[in-house]
Amino acid sequence: MNNVQLKNNAVLDLVRSHDRITWGVQLAIGLDRLKYGLHVQWPTNQKFFDTLGELKRKAQELHTSVPVSLKGFEKDGWIMHTTGRTGGFTFHISRADVHVFISVRKNWMETPNIWVDIGSVSCWNPGYRDTVEMIEHLVEEYSGKILKNGLSEVHPCADCIGLELSDLGIQDPELWITRANKFHFYYDRREFTGISMHQSEGALGLSDDKMIDTVGSLHESGLSAGEGDISLRVYNKVLELKKDGAKQSVFASVWGKDEYNNQPVTRVEFQLRRPVLRQLKVDTLEDLFEKLDGIWAYCVGEWAMFCEIPPDRENRHQDRALVHPWWVVLQSIDWGTYQPVTRQRILPQKDKYQLADQMVGCALNLAAIERCPLDVNCIVDYLQGFVAEWCLLKAKELDEKTGQPVLLEKMKKKLNECWPHGMEHEEFHGPYIQGG
Questions:
Q1: C or N: which end of the chain has fewer Cβ atoms within 10 Å?
Q2: Which of 164, 172, 93 is nearest to 134 (CA)?
């Protein structure tokens, strides 16, 4: 018996030692990205576009994004970007990793005139539902009326907290039953970091009766868009966060840990684009929130399954395959009972330790250029003196647009970037955690 089989048996024993899904590993479930469009009717005397136009011109004059004060969000960190988005979206405003693109088109009933892209951090903090409500509130503040919405892309995922990726043996393609026709493995040097699989052609393999209670009637169809309109990634989430300091504190809190790397975390993440969502009868945000159970059940029950031993493919007995205990746990996830966990913690969207390393590294270059002696006290004095001198210089220099000291204007921008939800917010909404 090889090492992988021994590790799998160890996981199996742990699963059987508890009820259902509690085997010493917690599951944090949620969405990791959400894209959708809004069809908004604006009043005829709407001055919203004039306000956005003035802000965009200011950003273009300064060649950088600028803070935006919007009704109902005066203390929150919205910013205006210098360019919009292809497809006729003139304006681009953002807050943290929530990007809102706004069009002035008149045929808004045919094509969305607002496009929303909610990124990973905001999907978890404050949460995708709260973020959707925030966008609706913004539209209402300017007397806009949302007549319909259209879902474009969604990434449902589950984080297995405490589960080591290398213990599962997922890099063996013979253990997978999947409709994917592309299969990729990833390594960081010699360490196995994850897999991805995509479907770019062929049938979905959906029937009209199996999912009728959850996602409705479905139709066979080929898929083709980039790497495919449905895909799966299973990867080492901790290793990924190692390269993204801005997200580390967020996910540490999501997982209920002091540090993001206290325990291993294996992420299982599906990506579904509009062609697949339409076949699943998931056209709107309301459909999504009502049918997450059905979407997940199809993903882990019909589109991809991980087995404990290779299934009997030659005799077409894949329906008798022994599903891996870990995958059984994933299949048991109940999205319908989602309840957020509230933690009294506000989280900056920047990693202060990583920024400190960058700042000191740059300052040391300046000290080296000035031939600073190899003496600790001399180096410290030089670095402190240089930063103080720069700050005092920028404090005397006035911004051409606002007339305020440049130092203060730069600080305002950084406050918006680090605390996009405002520094007054006290609650952090975490995931639905199953297991323990």
A1: N
A2: 93
